[in-house]
Specification:
The complex is a heterodimer of chains A (412) and B (397).
Chain A (H helix, E strand, L loop, with lengths): L1 H12 L9 E6 L5 E9 L5 H13 L9 H7 L8 E5 L2 E9 L3 H13 L5 H13 L5 H9 L8 H11 L6 E6 L5 H7 L31 E6 L10 H12 L5 H8 L7 E8 L2 E10 L5 H14 L6 H13 L22 H13 L6 H9 L3 H12 L9 H9 L1
Parallel strand pairs in A: 1-5
Antiparallel strand pairs in A: 2-4, 2-5, 3-4, 6-8, 7-8
Chain B lengths: L11 H16 L8 E5 L5 E6 L5 E9 L9 H13 L6 H7 L3 E6 L3 E9 L3 H8 L10 H15 L4 H12 L12 H6 L2 H11 L5 E7 L3 H12 L28 E8 L4 H16 L3 E6 L4 E8 L2 H8 L3 H21 L4 H14 L5 H6 L6 H14 L1 E4 L1
Parallel strand pairs in B: 2-6
Antiparallel strand pairs in B: 1-2, 3-5, 3-6, 4-5, 7-9, 7-10, 8-9
Helix pairs in contact in B: 2-5, 2-8, 10-12, 10-15, 12-15
Classes of the chains: A alpha+beta (412), B alpha+beta (397).
Chain lengths: 412, 397
């Protein structure tokens, strides 16, 4: 019900703000006690050099702006009891903050100040860089995932600033405002504060021949398997089939992956099949931690064989269960499902996530609404799902054994 | 705002927002009421029901209090295995059945209880409650099942996050080594036998050790009746159920560098001093988001651990930086009521919070905790900050 209501409100109010081609979505909800501001910033370069700078930039935005010092920024963005989000993803970044209801001007000011007037001081930059050397992962799993993500390059400050100026241009970005306000107020508040800025002309950013920071070493107590597959366009040909196949593989404790790896064979404790949002669409990603005494290729082979060997066990009931969980992902906060909001978080029905999801979909040109996805998913059958899983897992499938390899391939 | 906060002020903007909300609520007659029913049943099971008419989900949360169990085997390892089997339900296939309805089961173990929660959309509550009757029963366990589960837990032990390893370390350092490590060790997990499982389940799955919290969009009487029905499967116990002993306090150890953590045992959050410590913990995590706050509450005492953090934050804490201190106090003061309110934002978090508190202190619920927030004075906050700084126990993963 909440989902339907949100969708209706959005249809009425989400006309894209056309001035200067800036896209500002609105999702008014008068019952909310807060106003949420979201921004998505694309940057289509995904090689290691850019990825390292991109992650650094996401952290630097937290260091304060020319209008608000770091402490003041922290204080004002915590009025609703949450921290603001700056998350680097593959090919895009998201920023989100919230303010109490009635503070539209403050929220718009904070958001535009963070995005367009960040302090980006060299001292802060160097301090942040030094902390990267000391950063310790929160868990062995995070350490393993991190070792496959961008090896962090040591950026030069000038290049770092140039990356910022190239990427943070209003008409390349998508904005969203959700929560307690009247239709049109969110667009007006953001639009009136946008700078008229063009991307500088460059022949591409200079790539300093600096050695990268040593990538985090993978924990030795287990073998981490990661496999990524070609991006999925949810509104493209085969999109709904791939979406449902991902849920059959990765949703809940009764998912096919959990059943094949953990419940039947005891090969792992944690195994995931995720749809990770990138600028090119959702990237299907398999992750599992299994026995340490294998080389990676063998570990992947065991995973692949287990998934395929048990395909015959899949029934219409499994597909129905996955469909139920999929359709519910937009309405109920579930702990285990594949649809990710960004590189670290799963989608939930919270207003914060719904506006973020719509902003990301707009950024990537997805034209459907969650509501329009429903009938498409309902037409998918067991055979479609089996076909898709076989396509992903057959020996000759086009996949990459980890993201690092893929990124290197992109940059060569 | 309480007049007891002369120097640590919430920002004026926040004051205005809160006051506006309170005034509007009073004028409109919308001061929230929480219809809560709490009872200790004749068989000893504690139940609490909370009607949340606006919610679109429900949750039923079981807490099986393991305090004071006396067994021959390694208790932590046995409890860990038992938790995995309880999550499978009596049929052994509870997860698949639950997920077919769009609902789901989660289980975890704390230093006080094994928790099993069943959550889902409100539209499926009736069907889900029928399935919830499986919780508290064990599936048929063969040797193959036992070995498979032992292998799975071996994998799990490799993935324990740093923060929980800090919690584990804190138990040992703060005189709580006698309490079971809920993860167990790789060696001891392998040693658990059928007899061990039987011995622990015989003692644990009895009515006086069970707390059931139900939260959802139904009348409180209906929720209470459903909880009561779920309680009937547990038999009374002839043995008295032991309580925690007062934890021993620890020597003072300076704060830890990054990669380590800081731990303290505090009074229950049913007391203002306990709440002040929680506020400081929240304040730390808001000032440096690399700090992970771990809070294991109970009605008797709370274990709080600050894990991770940036070097500059540790340095500011260690050197007594006044600005840093003020920032932590302010952030914690603002965050405390919001954090308590956030525990009641969904039936899942509400039921978990209620079951956790009630499991060790029958009279304690979120309402009682919230009512004490105004007693958290600036003096208490300052004392709590200093205690974290001076008496926090350094823990390592």
């Amino acid at each position: 019900m909440r989902f339907l209501l949100s969708a209706c409100v959005l249809l009425i109010a989400a006309a894209i703000f056309a001035e200067d081609r800036v896209q500002i979505l609105e999702m008014p909800d008068t019952s909310a006690d807060r106003i949420i501001f979201e921004a998505a910033i694309p940057y289509p370069e995904s090689d290691l050099w850019h990825q390292g700078h991109w992650e650094m930039l996401a952290q630097s935005l937290r260091q304060g702006s020319q209008d608000f010092g770091r402490q003041e920024l922290r204080r004002l963005t915590q009025l609703t009891g949450t921290n603001f989000v700056t998350q680097a993803n593959d090919g895009w970044m998201r920023v989100q903050l919230s303010v109490p209801a009635g503070e539209m001007d403050l929220g718009a000011l904070l958001m535009t100040s963070i995005l367009f007037r960040p302090s980006l001081r060299e001292d802060d930059f160097r301090l942040l860089l030094s902390t990267l050397d000391d950063a310790t992962p929160r868990s062995p799993w995070e350490q393993a995932v991190g070792s496959r993500r961008a090896a962090r390059w040591r950026p030069h400050f000038e290049e770092f600033r140039l990356l910022y100026e190239t990427a943070f241009v209003p008409d390349q970005m998508v904005f969203g405002v959700a929560g307690s306000f009247r239709s049109g107020e969110g667009q007006a508040a953001i639009a009136s504060r946008l700078p008229r800025r063009q991307a500088p002309r460059t022949d591409g950013l200079r790539r300093t021949p600096q050695p990268p920071l040593a990538p985090p070493t993978e924990p030795s107590a287990f073998r981490f398997v990661e496999r990524i597959f070609p991006e999925v366009q949810l509104d493209g040909a085969g999109g709904p089939q791939q979406l449902l196949a991902a849920y059959v593989l990765g949703a809940g404790f009764s998912s096919h992956l959990t059943s094949a790896l953990r419940e039947r064979r005891g090969l792992s404790y944690r195994q995931e099949f995720l749809l990770v949002p990138t600028l090119a669409g959702y990237r299907p990603t398999l992750r599992a931690a299994t026995d340490a005494d294998q080389i990676e290729a063998d570990a992947w082979e065991r995973v692949r064989e287990a998934v395929l060997a048990d395909l015959a066990e899949l029934s219409d009931a499994d597909v129905e269960r996955a469909r139920t969980l999929l359709l519910q992902s937009f309405d109920v906060a579930m702990p285990y499902h594949p649809l990710m909001l960004d590189a670290e978080r799963l989608v939930s029905p919270a207003l914060e996530d719904q506006i973020a999801l719509r902003v990301y979909w707009t950024l990537t040109g997805m034209t459907l609404t969650p509501e329009q996805l429903r009938p498409l998913v309902e037409n998918v059958e067991l055979e479609d799902v089996l076909e898709q899983i076989e396509r992903w897992f057959k020996p000759s499938s086009r996949s990459n054994h980890n993201l690092l390899t893929w990124l290197r391939g992109q940059s060569s | 705002m309480s007049p007891a906060h002369p120097t640590v002020r919430a920002p004026s903007l926040h004051n205005e927002v809160v006051l506006t909300w309170l005034c509007a609520s009073l004028v409109l007659g919308q001061v929230p009421r929480t219809p809560v029913f709490r009872q200790e049943l004749p068989n000893g099971t504690r139940i609490v029901a909370h009607s949340m008419p606006e919610a679109d989900t429900f949750s039923v949360h079981f807490a099986f209090r393991h305090v004071g169990l006396e067994v021959n085997a390694d208790l932590g390892s046995t409890l860990h295995l038992l938790e995995h089997f309880l999550a499978r339900g009596e049929s052994g296939s509870l997860a698949a059945k639950a997920e077919s309805l769009g609902t789901w089961v989660e289980a975890y173990t704390t230093r006080e209880a094994i928790h099993v929660a069943f959550t889902g959309p409100a539209s499926e509550m009736e069907a889900a409650l029928a399935l919830a009757e499986e919780i508290g029963g064990l599936p048929r366990i063969t040797l193959d099942h036992l070995e498979l589960e032992q292998r799975i837990i071996q994998h799990e032990l490799n993935l324990i996050p740093r923060s929980l390893r800090h919690v584990r370390s804190a138990w040992n350092l703060i005189g709580e080594g006698s309490r079971p490590d809920p993860f167990g060790s790789a060696e001891s997990i392998q040693g658990v036998t059928f007899d061990d499982l039987n011995q622990v389940s015989e003692q644990l799955l009895v009515a006086p050790r069970v707390s059931i919290a139900m939260s959802g969009p139904a009348a409180v009487d209906d929720l209470a009746a459903a909880a009561e029905q779920l309680a009937t499967r547990f038999r009374p116990s002839g043995e008295p159920v032991a309580d925690w002993a007062t934890p021993e306090w620890s020597p003072s150890i300076p704060p830890s560098p990054p990669g380590g953590g800081l731990a303290i045992i505090t009074p229950s959050i049913g007391q203002p001093a306990g709440l002040a410590n929680l506020a400081i913990l929240l304040g730390f995590s808001l000032v440096d988001r690399e700090w992970e706050p771990i809070y294991q509450p109970s009605g008797i005492s709370s274990l709080m651990v600050l894990s991770g953090g940036n070097p500059e934050s540790w340095m500011a804490l260690q050197q007594g930086d006044a600005n840093f201190r003020a920032e932590v106090l302010n952030a914690g003061y603002r965050a405390l009521p919001q954090w308590i309110a956030s525990q009641q934002r969904s039936p899942a978090s509400d039921a978990a919070f209620r079951a956790t508190l009630m499991s060790s202190n029958f009279a304690l619920g979120p309402e009682q905790v919230l009512a004490r927030v105004d007693l958290v004075s600036v003096e208490l906050l300052s004392a709590a900050y200093d205690r974290w700084r001076q008496e926090g126990v350094r823990v390592r993963a």
